[in-house]
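During the second half of the funding period, the structural biology subgroup turned its attention to how the target accommodates small molecules. The most pressing case was magnesium ion, which had performed well in the primary screen but for which no bound structure existed. We therefore specified the complex as follows and requested a full 3D prediction, including the ligand pose.
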Amino acid sequence: MLRLSWSTFRERWQLFIGATLTVCLGVALVQSSLLILVSAAVGGYVEAIALLGITLGISAFLAVFIVSSTFAFTVAQRRRDLALLRLTGAARGQVRRLLLSEATLLGLLGTALGVPLGLLVMRAQSWLLRDLGFVPAEFAPRWQGWILAVSAGIGLGVAVSGVLAASRRAAKVRPLEALRDTGEAARVMTGLRWFFGILFLAGSVSLVIVSSFAGPEGAIPLAVNAALTAAVALSALSPLVVPLIGRVFGVALRGSTLGGLAQANLWDGVRRSASTAAPLIVLVALLLGQSGTLLSIGEAGQVEQRRDLRGDLVVTAQGQTGAASVPGVDVAAPQLRLPVRTTTTTYEGDGEYETEADNVDALVVDPAAYARTHRAEPVAGSLTRLRGNTVAVTADSGFPLGTTVDARIGDRDVPLRVVAVLPMTFAGGSMLLPVDAVPAAVAARAPSETIVRLAPGADAGAVRGALGEFGEVRTLEEWIDQSASRQQQVSTGIMTVILGLAGLYALIAVVNAVVIAAAERRREFAVARMSGLTRGQVVRLALLESWAVAAIGLVLGGLAGAGTWVGIGAATERIAGQSTIVVPWTLLGVVVAGALLVVGATSVWTAWSATRARPVSLAGAAE
Amino acid sequence: MTAPLSTELGRRAGGGPAAVELRDVSRHYGTKHDLVRALDGVSVAFAEGSWTAVMGPSGSGKSTLLHCAAGLERVSGGQVLLTGDDITAADDAALTRLRRSRIGFVFQSFNLIGSLTAEQNVALPLKLAGQRVPARQVRQVLASVGLDERRRHRPRELSGGQQQRVAIARAMVTRPSVLFADEPTGALDSASARQVLRLLREMVDRAGQTIVMVTHDPAAAASADSVMFLSDGRIVDHAAAPTAAEVAERLARLEA
Ligand SMILES: Nc1ncnc2c1ncn2[C@@H]1O[C@H](COP(=O)(O)OP(=O)(O)OP(=O)(O)O)[C@@H](O)[C@H]1O
Ligand SMILES: [Mg+2]
């Protein structure tokens, strides 16, 4: 049996290399994300931990999804071979054992290559984190011995579980199928596809509903999850869409022979098209869902600030400023940005306490001035009581009015009583402290902005000039725009960390699927050429078909991604009072062009090399 | 309409059960409204040690007959017996065992595994059956089809006739009681075809092999012991040891 695997390997190396590659990259990515996450957790880099958690989740998901769909695809591609084995006397169990032992071998090989590659990926990933400022410059992830077991488990686990269902289906292949040229099983929409498609569709709809109730913190992971579940659902259901897209292409290219042929091939190769589109669906869904969510949150924050802030000028400086005493200034509301570490202790029963630490960016304010420059009213308590060791929190902080927040400010532990609860906000700034809760030395070093309202009739130019001695002065409008573009930068950073390498993985999977799909078509191409198509026409035909497949991936991935925007639209409506959905048009354009380019180029290349041999030598010989 | 012709073909030695017997076998395809009767009440017995050719116009049900007789295709009605055992309702495991020991196949498209050498292709059925594979036996079988020297070659390095002979060797290595062949010479030039037919003749004469062979070629049919003719899923004629000219003439009458 192993001899058979080995010789099959030499024959169909594209399939096996492709499958091994997906395992290898998946293992590397998960291993690296996990190691970095563990190191960040040990170091207490809270901001990075949340991000890395999402990154790890996406990596693990992609590893499972891409490996299992690639393995299932390679098995489906070998249907005719397997039927031939059955014809020669192989029992169903033997076919399954053959496929499972192959998967084990490939899983092991992929792991063996993935572990060292994971170290390189780890370097790249932690460089990215340092470069984007999510972790300090001295951050270096540490190797853990146990990770080998995890990586091996992942590599073997995803490979074998990916083949499990496919091998059961393959074992049912009828020996007679070896005699028919169209090896594809008639029924592509299996019960399993319907089951997973509907299950995950329901899951993603519920996630979208949940995310519409989420605060800004929860929105990003929820959007990612919704996009991923929707992507799984639509990949499972994609065979339903393939013929539709085929028809669209048929109509668009009416009258052209190649167009008709491409449509027929799409209808005939539904499984192939669906499998090729699967990784693209996930990639597009992730990119669009994620960036749409981030952009919408940023936009909602900006809308909020425009509505909430009452002021004319903003002075950016360090510590308190003397802005209030400048002639012509009616109110000067300073807010100092101060990192505060809060700890929450919950009683778990049995004398066990669970302590959780959180780093928040608190704003140190003068409550009276704050109230005069912000329109938002507390939903509970009052800002006038913000004196001494007290705090005002937002509604999603989890601290009710009257409770105590254990905070560490500078190097002092301070218990802060919650005296006011502010409405939830997208603009950030989750905690307000009174000036007297903070040591003067700490406050003096904190970066600050002071929102200034001019007295009626004051000369804006003169005040602006006078304020210049404290720091940089902008109009409120300029300042909001500037903080929006800073927010944008942070969002891009988040996207890069979460999706940079994972996106690359998905992209490689897309290329891989196109290569695997073409590997089995040599004979078909040869027959097409024998029946009169030139080599150029065959290549163009392959290009057309691959674009149709890319269109399927783009449409379904776009649907999955756009579905998540519904949730964020509802969330912004609820929190900011105005539904903001920002469609990432630029990215959308890049994704569409990129997908057509990558898929098209790969398919041209594979079709060109698949037609290198003279057609007779392939069409004549049985395989 | 004439009643379906019940046919018994070939010599019967001592009245034992036929190697293969079809009793009133039907095979329908498609839906109720669009029904194709590929086989329509066929009864036929192929005697042990006989070589029967099956002929008929394209689409007359020859391949279907072969597939049903070999247990590759389920019948819609009737019974299939293999040396007296009813295999009509056999499960997959039983059919797999049959393929390993009692049935051999040869097809027009040689259906060799491209990644295996001739030798490995021939040894494959024994390996799949979990038997030890004596290299000598494999070489002997390959030698019997005249391909001992080419045993290390892969199918694509062999000519069509050579590939078909490897396929015959693979079918014979398990010493099946019946060899089913669907247009075994269909893809071959006349010289290679003659060589393959000579090979089949030797197997029948020397080892008493039972062969059921579908063919379009009157010359190939004339090499068999007897010929049966199918049309529209029914047996319409048969002839014992006809000449190629006789076969061609009867076929022409059918196709007219
Ligand atoms: N899987 C199938 N589904 C539907 N119809 C089928 C199927 N297989 C065969 N048929 C039909 O059954 C009839 C008999 O087919 P069969 O392949 O047995 O013909 P044949 O005599 O072998 O023809 P040829 O000489 O061309 O090979 C044909 O009309 C064919 O269209
Ligand atoms: Mg036929």
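Two results from this model are relevant to the next phase. Chain B touches chain A at residues 67, 72-73, 92-93, 96, 99-100, 105, 107, 109-116, 120, 124-125, 127-129, 155-156, 160, 163, 170, 174, 182 (CB under 8 Å). Residues B 29-30, 36, 38, 56, 58-64 surround adenosine-5'-triphosphate (ligand 1) (CB under 6 Å).
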